[in-house]
Design a protein that fits this description.
about 0% helix, about 50% strand, globular, mainly beta, 5-stranded mixed β-sheet
Length: about 100
């Protein structure tokens, strides 16, 4: 019997987006390679001081905090996701341009 233990998954996250309602790159949207079967997902966004700006179980952030657009700048993100019974994490930064 063979058990596939490969739980690696390609995670794609842009390094910049512009929530200015021009119809292009208005949201920070993460995606996974086609062969990934994600069971759980948590997307966390932090400002440069480490304050939590957004927490969601969706693959996108619209650049808002307290229902207002954030100022331009660099934000950190943490993506926690589950594949079968394995928990994985990806971290990075995204630049918001208005």
């Amino acid at each position: 019997m063979f058990t596939d233990c490969n739980v690696d998954c390609d995670v794609y996250a842009p390094n910049v987006f512009s929530p200015n309602n021009d119809g292009r790159n208005d949201e920070f949207v993460i995606s996974f390679s086609d062969d990934c079967r994600i069971n759980t997902l948590e997307l966390l966004i932090y400002d440069r001081w480490g304050n939590l700006v957004s927490k969601t179980n969706h693959t996108r952030w619209d650049g808002r905090f307290d229902n207002r657009l954030v100022a331009s700048g660099v934000f950190s993100f943490v993506i926690n996701y589950g594949i079968n019974s394995f928990e994985k994490q990806k971290r990075g930064t995204v630049f918001v341009i208005k």
